[in-house]
Write a structure and sequence with these properties.
alpha+beta, globular
Length: 1288
């Protein structure tokens, strides 16, 4: 094992933050430093050249500071027996760079502590500091660096074991159930005992674990399929039957429901853009663009290890989408979280009480510091925009024995994708079809996760919690997705017969599900499974939940085509065996010459005894919430700082929202980019205006008082939110229903049944189907304290996600008020004057429940409201729209004012309870309309069926940035809007300060509500023709290499931009160049695209660059291309980072900088202002001095020079909203000196830039562009046209 030092692991601010935390528990610590250390497993000794090359590859990040001689060191390494995602990617880089003697790389961190007294740390002190320096679930602490050799220890495979029921009887199964954490019921144990007695043999541990996974609540949804008795009355339908009834009554546009990884609904016909898998040329394809949809939860793993739990939750849901039908393409994602009270240090709120928690789960604050980063990072690296979400905190004591809360959190992951018509349904698998696993290797991670997720948090053994932690590797999933994309792009020649993702239960669940759907069995070989941990037992190999894997059935005659696609994308695969006519699952083990599995499919997936649920209703009478003593100003302060209501900025800017170039409406709204959008909208095509939308609705606290109302209001909220998109009819909407409950707890089963029944009835009335959903019904957290059981139970929680096809993405309404004095605000009160407060944010912040909840009393009012709103939207009568939900009417109005950067004057009719009037969360909405249209707008609502008495003109905007509120002429409130905006943003600021660079967080917070901030703008020094493409010479199409490496994900939008400018775009993978399949000498242009090549290990773009520099043939090819004066090149984002490190190959580029970690130390996804600078760049001809918005999405975009004297050939820089060059965050999202973010070489042919103009070459791609810009194309099309013009 080689040991090689690395660079700094922590920045200065993170060191200071860590030191402060350490000194709070060990005051004697005076300093701490941290640096990386690398461990290399080699097959033989490296020579001098190889050693030099390896050191160069590992030279990334900031140099190590001086470590004190008298320091005390501790070393953190990955948990032995596992392989870190970093290791997988770094090892790929060294192999692709020619260092084949390196078998594997791993990385650790060294922490060096200095103590005031000069002593070393004792065991007690080390125990105290451990939680601050390592993740107990995925890492361990060692004293000596040589102990890291355990990372590479290879042991002989553990043997198969059997459970001796023949001699020990059913008790042996009962013991195994406990010791293995199988979570089997008594009925299931009896079933297994009887089945294996009939087979005449003992079950293997593999068969038992496989059965437990395949038949877990997580996978089988036993409660939803159970027979129910409520209050001694047998119920007619199961829960699942009531959900199915919504589809039976209203199939609408749903093409596939309930039987696949995701549901599918019909989309519109459009021009879809993708590459031909045979000749690699990009082009448009006229076809029906159908929409698949899926929403999952990943609660238990997120409770014990938030980052990997949330990351793999998002990754698993992405795989569900990709494995729909015969293969599909994920397109847009969502994530959501519900946790208990945050209790932010120094920012604790009046309603937050510390009720304790078990040691093995993390705190709510830790979940929100780490979990959202995991979810966002996975989406970012995979290449899916995260456009929607929710965040709720709730923790409230009912009485001495019961606390409601989310100690077991909700982690919601979902989204939608695109699927072709012939691929909607899986085909029957023929006998002899090859059964394949695609993706990463088996590793001992996530073992038993399906069963573990069916337990209450804290009720299982701690070792089982450790075993169920999963690892994320989104770059591997990206490679697999590229294979799937090439398969479905082959059309009639798609080699995929059927595909299934590998999730809960691993291969033990996925492979049986794959073949059983076609009434087939399988003959498989265990040792063909790619396995990075050969010491695993057969159970470990078969049942582990290593992520980023799929199982597929491929016809034998298509196998060569499929494997060639895998090899091009460097996606690992293995043929495990064949499908058989006999419905028997056989898993041979060549190593031990035995069979780990030999079981009839009818035993594994057979019909179990019907589950019976006998539930009793709970009648609890809560006191009415008396608001008479509440102070209005204090109520505003509390509600605005409740996380459910407050700004979600800290959750949003960490997620790439522009990847794909098809995003029309993300969370950020208006010139000041305020996160208040009601729904997400994407375009189906770069050419058309058809699209898709999604929105979330959930009202969990209502279920504590009225479960049925909670379900109805969740649906109503989702529909109110998605109504902001232009949807032709209500039946174009389909819903996902995700149910969370603490089944078995008093009254909870009855509440669940009541809510499902209410939701079913409502959907049938509305004409909307629920074709997809999920349940997680063990939402309890239990632990012991002073020999007393402690328990926190979550409210019954229904998360509704609405999906719809969109007729015109340009008609997407937002809450942004327009600064137009000739407008009025119209309030539509769908509750007809009711002001029920139970379950509201106001109740929560005063630790009350209330006795009567809001409800959708008349479903028809939702139908007619939707119809009227769509008519008005189509007629361009609505300037702004926002529904009333969390926080009530006051928050609705405040958020509209924030987005519009304007004051408002509100006049309400008199009520004797202004608090209830402002903070009830009944259904309703506020729209801004022209004063001249007021009567016609009201009449449209009346004609649709809305009563005139529910329509109220309540206000106008003002120009003094003040929120004024009066009742019948009496002033009740007058506050500066910026003061309210800061209160609303304070929670986000506090979390951002703990998680990111606090200086950056402060800069952004201080900028909120600046009255002098005029917002984003466009000021070009050129004019764009109404049809700027008219001058393109279409007779000649120059060849453009759209270059990508493994992990790159931004090639599609880049090709679309250059295609629009008249180029013939060709998909070029680095493997094509290495194999000699493609050479650069035939191309006129080359663009290195954005993404996460090799997952950005060894520095962003560093691995990609070094794999070029250390390959003599490839290095020479690039150097030759760069020196050709008839070519041009561009590197964007990851491509920019990569090309900057090729500067020695590029003429006139020696002054180019490196790109290092953002100043915020966070991934930054924003719409920011840039200015085009004077430079020789061919791309920016006639654009010098132009100031325009552009999207950025990167974690390492800060320029770093060896000397500032070398700064030259800068071509683009960040400016603030006044047009001045800036280094201030977030106008400058990465802290680059002088705002520099784009560069060119001396003759202007070769350019690099961190922003993404290719994602905003069309007007519709901006979340905001001034209305004065009316061209279909954005100003950025000029850059691509300049490239085409230069080649003329």
């Amino acid at each position: 094992m080689l040991i090689l030092p690395g660079g700094n692991a922590l920045s200065e601010f993170r060191v200071n933050k860590l030191l402060f935390a350490l000194q709070s528990c060990i005051p004697a610590i005076s300093s701490v430093e941290s640096y990386y250390i690398h461990f290399a497993e080699t097959s033989s000794d490296l020579n001098q050249k190889e050693t030099t090359q390896l050191n160069a590859l590992l030279n990334y990040g900031a140099a190590v500071k001086h470590v004190a001689v008298d320091s005390f060191n501790l070393i953190i390494i990955p948990r032995p027996g596992t392989i870190s995602p970093w290791s997988s990617k770094a090892s790929d880089i060294v192999h692709n760079s020619g260092l084949n003697k390196i078998m594997r790389l791993e990385r650790g961190r060294v922490y060096s502590f200095t103590l005031n007294d000069g002593n070393t740390l004792n065991e007690k002190q080390i125990t105290l500091l451990k939680p601050h320096i390592h993740d107990r679930m995925t890492e361990i602490l060692i004293d000596n660096e040589n102990d890291a050799s355990a990372l590479f220890t290879i042991t002989e495979p553990a043997e198969l074991t059997q459970v001796d029921i023949i001699n020990a009887g059913i008790e042996a199964l009962e013991t195994a159930n406990t010791e293995m954490g199988l979570a089997l019921s008594n009925d299931e144990i009896s079933y297994l005992f009887s089945s294996f007695k009939t087979l005449g043999r003992n079950p293997t541990d593999v068969e038992l674990m496989m059965f437990a996974q395949a038949n877990s609540e997580h996978c089988r949804h036993k409660i939803f399929n159970a027979e129910w008795t409520i209050d001694n009355v047998k119920q007619e339908h199961s829960l699942f039957k009531m959900i199915r009834q919504t589809h039976e009554a209203n199939p609408g546009n749903v093409l596939s429901a309930y039987h696949d990884n995701a549901a599918v609904m019909a989309g519109f016909n459009g021009a879809r853009f993708f590459t031909d898998p045979i000749n690699h040329h990009y082009g448009y394809h006229d076809e029906d663009i159908h929409i698949l949809m899926k929403v999952e939860t990943h609660n238990h793993p997120t409770a014990i290890s938030p980052y990997p739990g949330a990351a793999t939750g998002s990754g698993g849901e992405i795989r569900d989408e990709a494995a729909t039908g015969r293969g599909a393409k994920p397109k847009a994602g969502l994530s959501g979280f519900a946790v208990s009270n945050l209790k932010i240090p120094g920012f604790e709120q009046a309603w937050e009480t510390d009720n304790g928690k078990p040691d093995r789960i993390v705190s709510a604050l830790d979940i929100m510091l780490e979990g959202p980063i995991g979810a966002a990072a996975y989406n970012n690296e995979f290449g899916r925009p995260a456009l929607c979400g929710y965040f709720r905190t709730y923790e409230q004591r009912k009485d001495e024995t019961l606390i409601y809360g989310y100690h077991k959190p909700i982690m919601l992951a979902g989204g939608y994708g695109m699927i072709r018509e012939p691929d909607v349904h899986k085909q029957d698998i023929p006998t002899g079809a090859k059964l394949i696993v695609l993706g990463g290797p088996a590793m001992l991670i996530g073992l038993g996760g399906g069963a573990a997720s069916s337990m209450a948090s804290g009720s299982s053994d701690a070792s089982l919690d450790f075993a169920s932690v999963q690892r994320d590797n989104p770059e591997m999933e990206r490679r697999c997705q590229e294979v799937i994309d090439r398969c479905w792009a082959l059309g009639d020649n798609n080699p995929i017969i059927s595909i299934h993702d590998v999730g809960a239960g691993g291969l033990s669940n996925a492979m049986p599900e794959l073949v059983s759907a076609s009434n087939r069995g399988a003959q498989l070989e265990l040792r063909e499974i790619p396995n990075d941990e050969p010491g695993m037992s057969p159970m470990g190999v078969w049942c582990n939940e290593s992520q980023e894997r799929y199982v597929l059935a491929i016809a034998e005659e298509q196998l060569d085509r499929f494997t060639s696609l895998c090899e091009r994308e460097r996606a690992p695969y293995a043929v495990l065996g064949d499908a058989t006519a006999k419905e028997q699952l056989v898993l041979n083990d060549a190593h031990f010459s035995n069979q780990a599995i030999d079981i009839p499919m009818s035993v594994l997936l057979g019909k179990m005894p019907n589950i019976q649920r006998d539930a009793q209703s709970e009648t609890t009478q809560h006191a009415e919430f008396d608001t008479s003593t509440l102070d209005l100003y204090e109520s505003i302060d509390r509600v605005l700082q409740l996380p459910t209501v407050a700004s979600k900025n800290f959750l949003i800017t960490i997620g790439d929202r522009s990847i794909s170039g098809l995003v029309v409406r993300d969370q950020m709204v208006g010139p000041w980019q305020v996160p208040v959008a009601d729904c997400a909208v994407t375009s189906s095509s770069y050419f058309d205006y058809i699209g898709e939308a999604m929105a979330i609705g959930e009202r969990a606290p209502l279920a504590l008082i009225n479960a049925a109302a909670s379900g109805r209001m969740a649906i109503a909220e989702a529909i109110m939110n998605i109504s902001a998109a232009r949807i032709i009819k209500l039946e174009d909407i389909a819903l996902s229903a995700n149910w969370m409950a603490a089944c078995g707890e008093t009254g909870q089963d009855a509440k669940l049944y009541s809510a499902v029944a209410a939701v079913s009835d409502l959907c049938k009335t509305l004409g909307i189907a629920i074709p997809v959903g999920k349940d997680s019904l063990s939402m309890n957290t239990v632990w012991s304290k002073n020999n007393q059981q402690q328990k926190v139970t979550s409210p019954l929680s229904l998360n509704i996600t609405a999906f719809a096809r969109v007729a015109d993405v340009r008609h997407s309404l937002t809450p942004q008020l327009h600064q137009d004095d000739d407008t009025v605000l119209l309030y539509i009160d769908l509750a007809k004057g009711k002001q029920r407060l139970a379950g509201s944010a106001l109740c929560q912040v005063y630790e009350q429940f209330g006795n009567e909840t809001p409800d959708l009393d008349d479903p028809n009012i939702l139908i007619v409201f939707f119809q009227a709103l769509q008519i008005l939207n189509e007629s361009d009568y609505i300037l702004a729209y926002h529904d009333r939900s969390d926080g009530g009417l006051f928050v609705t109005l405040a958020e509209m004012a924030f987005a519009g950067h304007t004051g408002i004057d509100i006049e309400l009719a008199y009520t004797n309870d202004i608090i209830a009037n402002l903070f009830n969360e009944e259904l309703g909405a506020v729209i801004q309309i022209k004063r001249a249209h007021e009567q016609s707008v009201k009449q449209t609502f009346i004609n649709a069926g809305i009563e005139e008495r529910t329509l109220h003109t309540i206000g106008t905007i003002n120009n003094d940035y003040t929120f004024r509120l009066a009742q019948d002429g009496t002033n009740n409130l007058e506050l500066p809007v910026n003061e309210l905006h800061k209160k609303w943003s304070a929670t986000s600021f506090q979390i951002q300060s703990l998680r990111d660079n606090p200086d950056c967080a402060r800069q952004e917070f201080d900028n909120i509500g600046d009255q002098n901030d005029s917002g984003l703008f466009v000021d070009t020094t050129f004019e764009l023709e109404s049809n700027p493409l008219v001058f393109i010479n279409t007779d000649v199409k120059p060849k453009m290499a759209i270059l990508r490496e493994q992990g790159v994900n931004g090639q599609l939008e880049m090709a679309a931009a250059f295609d629009r400018a008249g180029f013939d775009c060709v998909d070029v993978h680095m493997q094509d160049l290495i194999d000699g399949q493609i050479k650069l000498d035939s191309f006129n242009g080359l663009v290195a695209c954005g993404g996460f090549s090799y997952g950005d290990v060894l520095g962003a773009g560093g691995g990609w660059a070094k794999s070029i520099l250390y390959n003599d043939k490839i290095s020479k090819m690039f150097e030759t291309f760069f020196k050709r004066t008839d070519t041009f090149s561009l590197g964007v984002c990851n491509g920019c980072q990569m090309m900057s490190q090729l500067r020695d190959l590029i003429p006139g580029a020696t002054s180019w900088p490196d790109f290092i970690r953002n100043q915020s130390e966070q991934f930054e996804a924003r719409l920011v202002m840039v200015e085009i600078m004077e430079s020789p760049s061919i791309l920016f001809k006639d654009m010098v001095g132009s100031k325009m918005p552009v999207v950025v999405a990167h974690g390492e975009g800060r320029v770093s020079y060896k000397s500032t004297d070398l700064i030259s050939n800068a071509a683009m820089r960040y400016i603030d909203n006044t047009g001045v060059v800036t280094e201030n965050y977030p106008h400058n999202p990465n802290g680059s000196i002088n705002g520099c973010t784009g560069f060119t070489n001396d003759d202007g042919r070769i350019n690099i830039m961190m922003p993404h103009p290719e994602r905003v070459f069309l007007r519709k791609q901006f979340s905001y562009l001034p209305s004065q810009w009316v061209n279909e194309y954005s100003p950025w099309i000029k850059m691509f046209l300049n490239a085409r013009d230069w080649l003329n």
